[in-house]
Amino acid sequence: MEPRTDDPTAAPSRRRAERPPSERYRAPRRSGSGDWAMVSLSVLMVGLILVRGRLAELVDRSDALAAWLTVFVSIGLQALPFLVLGVVLSAAIAVLVPADALTRWLPRHPAAAVPVAGVSGLVLPGCECASVPIAGSLVSRGVRPAVALTFLLAAPAINPVVLVSTAVAFTGRWEMVGARFSASLLTAVVVGWLWLRLGRDHLVRIPEVRTTGHGRLADFVGAARHDLLHAGGFLVLGSAVAATINVLVPRSVLDTLAGNLLVSVLVLAVFAVVVAVCSEADAFVAASLSQFPPTAQLAFMVVGPAIDVKLFAMQVGTFGRRFATVFAPLTFVVAVGSALLVGAVLL
After folding, report:
1. What is the 3-state composition of the chain as percent helix, strand, coil, each rounded to the nearest 5?
2. How is the chain split into domains, by residue range?
3. pTM of the full predicted structure?
């Protein structure tokens, strides 16, 4: 006997009528003062880059301001190409790649499917903003939440764009690239297995499948424009905070924080949660924080793509508040632990 469609224990695939192949899951369009703030910050970054020569002349008498501007603009100049590439790829994946493409590769057993979903982050790259709706689409099509959440954590952290940007930011220090890949993949797989073990699938609200009716090209352009302006705003914030730390925070304070490995890791982990820099650009912010030990820089790059303030808000909107209040702290603890473990071995 078929379960009733309103039965909360029924499988997600039974609770949804079959959708036409043309339908794609798309995150709800976001608007409001927060988006306008991000747009304004993105425009500010571009404007400062364009007039950096003139600004350098104006601030020539202020060594501190000149140093701040140099760090701020250099981070933006280095990170912006990777940010644009990542946004374009993630928009293309969200619009053009069927959500069931990943399910074709997954083993039937959930415990085996978790690491496969993690490694799949290499095949379907995208920033963390795109990974949340893609994971929601997977859950809505009957994929176990633990498997979809593993992909959500892995895709923005181990994809080729992120790894190349990390190599560029750390000037070819391949041990840092390997450490980021290993710690991020370990975080995704461990969280996925823990979610299976804890049996918290009932906390996951099944997202609705949405259609736009405007065509794939319009969806792609809209998604890329929104994500670029939104992510660009967070890049500005991260660059400004990093420049401020480099210029204004006394060296003695930084030396005290950096002198204790656990304290420095926790400081940069919390910093990653607050500034919410896109994963394609966060390596340049981490590299600029050269006063901190490599393991702390690694923690910044592992925690950021896994959980930050914007991701928490998106997870609440996609999967529900009860889910996010359990998943966010679990992810933070595992990410910090993975960075410490991998940093001790590789860095």
Report:
1. 75, 0, 25
2. 31-206+215-346
3. 0.76
